[in-house]
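Researcher: Structure for this, please.
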Amino acid sequence: MLLKIHHIAIICSDYAVSKKFYTEILGLNIIREVYREERRSYKLDLAIGDQYVIELFSFPNPPERPSRPESCGLRHLAFSVENISNTRAELMEKGIDCEDIRTDEFTGKAFFFIQDPDQLPLEFYER
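Model: Predicted structure, token format:
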């Protein structure tokens, strides 16, 4: 019945900051950007390459999402990368605070976490 995940929706607190983070820091491509006057809301459709992956929304005064301690609901988003060390180094050069690289005890693959501008945990996982 299910084919794949179509996209992930993220609500941000500061649209300009999050747009810059996802497009300029992470390098996602803009498919379309729409401002919906009736909602006072932006909707930014983002892709990795040509694969649609994230809808970034802005709404007036969204409530904060608890991230720590971990709470029920979405825990984090994970992106597959070719080289974990290079990815971490590139993010750090762009001023992003990166956790240390760890090894998944079950798969033996390397990974690390960062946080987006609203403290949503983002994982980078070596392919």
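Researcher: Any notable elements?
Model: The first strand starts at residue 8 and ends at 12. The mean pLDDT is 94.
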